Prior knowledge:
The structure holds two protein chains of two kinds. By secondary structure, chain A is an all-alpha fold.
Amino acid sequence: MKALFVPLSVLLGLLFFLSLSIGPESISLWQGVLDIGAGNETIQAVILSEIRLPRALIGVFAGATLGLCGAAMQGLLRNPLASPGLVGSSSGAALFAIVYLYFFAGSAGTAWLPAAGMLGALLATLLVYALAGRQSSITTLILAGVAINALATALMSLLLNLAPSPYAVRELVLWTLGDLSDRSMHDFWLMLVPTLMGWALLIGIGAKLNALTLGEQTATSLGINTRHLRWRIFIAVALAIGACVATTGMIGFIGLAIPHLLRPLVGHDPGRLLPAAALGGASLLLAADVVVRLVPTNEPLKVGVVTALVGAPFFLSLVMRSRKEYL
Amino acid sequence: MSLISCQNATIKLGETPVVKDASLQISAGELVGLIGPNGAGKSTLLAALAGIHTPSAGNVQLQGRALQDHPAEQRARALAWLAQSGPINWPLSVERLVALGRTPHRSSWQQASSEDAAIIERVLAETDCLALRDRIANTLSGGERARVLLARALAGEPTVLLADEPIAALDFSHQLQTMELLRNFANGHRSCLVVLHDLSLAARYCDRLILMDEGLVVSTGAPQEVLSKDTLRTIYGVEAEITLGEFPSVLAKHRV
């Protein structure tokens, strides 16, 4: 157990430090910390506390949320292809965030953006649930998720299509790509509360997910209320993913791949995978966010693009491996 | 004392009543065989006794109290259900899989105690699974898998064990070993209801048999009372030769 959690925590710490150290301006971290401590508003202090710190913190919490929610969904649905996006939470959050940016951001500012994301995620999840029916099988749930995802994507396209100016289109498209730059501490605090509420709901579900390994009926005979568990995870994912997507845009791949990669390292135990996937997800998002700052491009690279670029080949290797298994 | 019972239970899967007006009662110390042709409703009745299905009419009682009045954890500690063909969704090691049987005894936070470890060790030994403990559970053969899942059910140290065809995939030696295990399990304050198709072994090991057909409990009683040439002809549709005694045998000769 420790053999995995200690190195993952150390890795996360290192990446956090690296994320604070890297940027277009080279500053002395130590000097920055000293200046903040002394209350001096030097350039180091401002860059550190208002640009790099929120970026790194949002990276940690959004990455951890993606990994954790991915592991929870995969455990619940007992399917390695499940991800937070599967039941519509990500695209629902993105749609509502875009609607908010499109219609309300001008008058109300971005303060309610995470709330809009959560609302979208919750509504999409509820729709999927209603579509699938109360006694739904996993397959029906997945099908309903695909349908709601398609609807949300279509509505996003419609908004882009009707956008008044090319500039607005560009803004919205860039926002959906997934990005951690130019976020403030204010954005971080807004995202933090619902994110932690989602995490709190996931505390203590490990043993229940483990029991689900034997199927819903045997889990029921072991005293697990499987319907209750399903609701709990759906609401947790809607809260945490909704807030994160509203803050960072859609960041793919992490919620799918991190649980998948770490699973063999925890003996395929769905419960122990949860904390491991949270640490792994945070590390991967921070690492990707360091990479986008190091790669010299004319336009700043978006972190969601990088994770998607890494994600596609990973998905292909998954397909190849499962093809071998079923041959 | 009756450990588990049902009165006039009707159980529907969808709209179809699969079990109709079934009543039975299992006392402490009893090993009872639930027999009957395919589709008789045995598995559905067993699952209803375990609380997986809720009867649309009638009721199920565990230790003298309505099943749904027991808190889920308390019910899970008192009663274990072994599915006929349950899935194993992740490639867990056998030991980890068997440890899942301890779920109702641990809170979410507790790590496995030394007591848990001792119980897991014992049930692995009883089911002859010690050599399999580090194998990946979903790479096992059908018979090995059946033994491991039985070990999982026993690991909860239940008072009532409801086992659905635990010996169907086993070889001769393991069939006898498992029946002896169930026989020893059902003594004193515990009892076991087991779905069986091997009528010879059912007659040899069970105190009582419950015969089902087309959703109805047709007869119940000592093996020699339930198993008759007439019954086998009318219910199973076979002409059979029945020998009783120390090693009873039921031999189906041909269909009628």
